[in-house]
């Protein structure tokens, strides 16, 4: 017998994996969308382990090709069940460059991944959610959505756009009972990539634990609709934050 | 046998009452601080009804007299148990006036209620929380903390100050394991006062339900410490928000 | 004998025309970049009338084709003189639609006009400005850069991106003596289009006068480099603003 | 023959002195308000030197005693001429302490200096400005008005309050033709105090030059009323800014 579906676009071995496990443990079937199933091995394993009855399925799509996202989400609705929550957890490459070194192509690519891909996902699931007057759309974002950057301008430009999209969707469709949230991670995540990047200065207390972040997503999903957040900030207790 | 204590400064028949009931239902003893026990009758009743084993006690203090807050909180720690969460839920009178009509006394009063009172509460509970590396301090605030107002300047000036205090405390003591949160209500609450104010245009769907807001406070309290929010926004799904 | 050049990308009969006249009156030669010279007739006329010695020239480019912007700006530097200030004053169509009605193409178009076009302009003029340790790049933007919209999501998404670009450039190149500014108009402009849109409720006191806005751009250009603004807000004295 | 008056509350040997000289050079008589004339010696000297015809006068007041500000400003209006621009340039001591070390008295003091003092000044000059439909009220503030601080919480609490006041006044009285501006210095100033504080790492290029900041105030004062800024940020071109 089917459970409500949590669909995660972008489910690698960082936050996506933790989200898959968390929502599986809470009674959701899990649909993982990524370019290749190889990316999702850890997420599939953890989600499957989290709850015996969980149905975990992989669907292929490329975030830079919005039609493939539409197709994958249509398949999920058909093959599995109604999508109760969709988490857009994709991010473009976190490329360092100074602003004048950006190429037009890199700008277009980041916009496709961060904004058009997220919109394709929204377009695919919101109409049914609006009809049912329930459902959630969460987008994984960062403090980069609030501040330009002299070292990572592409990331900032993408996340600003994602935030504009998220706010616009929330303002338009909250009244229809759909909970749309911009999840701002104001920190680095304790994932393999970061462990390598930090090297000797790696300190897990300074980073957000993916399972804890997934827990915070879950708690946000539990908010009753007369007391919703549409923008959530998350940071570890050790973070020296500015805003 | 004692349970951890949730202390609520400012527990009238609006949000305070709902917070008392919520935390009582989750295994907390409840300490209510207000000028007179009469203000807390509804909160006492609801908290008592929420869970059979809950110990609910009233303590007298005047938010404009910081020493009385210190005394009340010292009594609680002694008479009941350690305070695990303190919610500063006081607000000054929501007086409408144009800015030039403010008096110096009114400015001082709002600052005493919103900032000095909150600081007195923080000062009374944080050292023990820091020692134990656990505990929460939530302040009830509003969108007025983000925007000056031509019609309610006193409220804005008070809430700006409360937000500055809350951010400063969070930035200083999060590292010690204390969760300090500025709860921004971006809406009106469905409380008797507002029902009267709205009159014929009263529509509960347009207002935040106090029980739902209390639920959102509770969910925030559950955040794990590597994924904390320090500023939370809450609004009903019907709200036409700007920021 | 040539004067320093003020290049304006997007010089129609609204703000662009007023900017051309203002900078002409202050001793600049004026380069107008637009898709067709017909768009610039008013700007050419006013800039020419503003000062006898002003050299006003038109250059053709399409903001959605970044290479054409590069070419036009290269021609200006060659045919006229060094560009001392470039004003990116283009905006996409101010299309009303609800978010779910946006097309992928419309999203790409707005991003091209607002972000890629502005970046093409920046890329064309900043290296020379950095070499000379002087020059200004101003982008015309709006409060839409700060807030998603349920009625004009495309405009918001474009302006968010433009602001991210502007901040990133400013953070990277201010140290090289280049003044990069995001000009936020928090109002409607008193231009023919708006007069028609307002109809009977048209009231010039409620709108920003283009000549006054151009004056405010000029005053920003005069800021000394140890006291620069990188984000400027402008609104008429009658505006009921929120942020 | 009298010129319009620029009144400066808090005119020491930093920014106040530069403001006095700037406005004197632009055809204003200068009224300096401070606790003692000794504080204003440099400002008096520079304002006098800036323009032969300038009338420079000192008036005694204590920013923590709002009535003394009212009295000083009443004297100015009587002894000199109408006040065309008032600059509230006072700041409380920039005391470093951790939040829990603040005293109630220190909180009250900072609120008196930053908010009540500024309000006393506003109350003293705005009614006449509203009657004449012209005039400016600028308050000198800082990025501390936007962010709590774990090291300088008093300063943040004061500046948040000042910003709330400034916004409230602007929203209420701009329509009456009065230009009210929160001047945010996002930097340290190149003043004797800072030179000492920086010691060997003192580098004038990293600091805002007071004369340049005064110039930026002046340029803001020149904005036409259909294109006003109500919040202005200022920083040196070398500043690594976040927001």
Q: How large is the radius of gyration of chain A?
A: 17 Å
- How would you state the average pLDDT of chain A, rounded? 95
Largest sheet of chain A: 7 strands, parallel
- Order of strands, main sheet of chain A, comes to 3-2-1-4-5-6-7
Shape of chain A: globular
- SSE run of chain A: EHEHEHEHEHEHHE
Q: Gap between N and C termini of chain A, in Å?
A: 45 Å
What fraction of the residues of chain A are assigned to beta strands by DSSP? 15-25%
Query: Could you give the count of β-strands of chain A?
Result: 7
Oligomer: homotetramer
As a percent range, the share of helical residues of chain A equals: 40-55%
Structural class of chain A: alpha/beta
User: Please, how many helices of chain A?
Assistant: 7
Largest interface: A-C, 38 and 38 residues
Uncertain stretches of chain A:
none
Description:
The structure is a homotetramer of 243-residue chains. By secondary structure, chain A is an alpha/beta fold. Chain A has 7 helices and 7 strands; from the N terminus they run βαβαβαβαβαβααβ. A 7-stranded parallel beta sheet of chain A has the order 3-2-1-4-5-6-7, sandwiched between helices. In chain A, helix 1 runs parallel beside helix 2. The longest helix of chain A has 29 residues. The first copy, chain A, is globular. At the C-D interface, helix 7 and strand 7 of C face helix 7 and strand 7 of D.
């Amino acid at each position: 017998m089917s459970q409500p579906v949590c669909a995660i676009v972008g489910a690698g071995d960082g936050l996506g994996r933790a989200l898959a496990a968390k929502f599986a443990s809470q009674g959701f079937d899990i649909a993982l969308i990524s370019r290749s199933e190889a990316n999702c091995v850890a997420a599939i394993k953890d989600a499957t382990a989290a709850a015996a009855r969980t149905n975990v399925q992989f669907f292929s799509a490329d975030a830079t090709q919005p039609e493939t996202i539409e197709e994958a989400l249509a398949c999920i609705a058909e093959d599995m069940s109604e999508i109760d929550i969709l988490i857009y957890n994709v991010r473009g490459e976190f490329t360092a460059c100074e602003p004048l070194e950006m190429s037009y192509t890199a700008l277009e690519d980041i916009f496709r991944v961060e904004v058009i891909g997220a919109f394709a996902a929204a377009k695919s699931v919101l109409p049914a959610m609006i009809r049912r007057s329930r459902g959630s759309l969460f987008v994984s974002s960062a403090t980069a959505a609030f501040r330009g950057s002299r070292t990572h301008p592409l990331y900032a430009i993408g996340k600003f756009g994602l935030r504009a999209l998220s706010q616009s969707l929330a303002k338009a469709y909250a009244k229809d009972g759909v909970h749309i949230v911009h999840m701002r991670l104001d920190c680095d995540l304790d994932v393999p990539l970061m462990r390598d990047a930090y090297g000797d200065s790696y300190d897990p207390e300074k980073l957000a634990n993916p399972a804890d972040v997934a827990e915070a997503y879950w708690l946000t999903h539990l908010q009753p609709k007369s007391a919703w957040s549409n923008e959530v900030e998350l940071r570890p207790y050790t973070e020296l934050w500015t805003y």
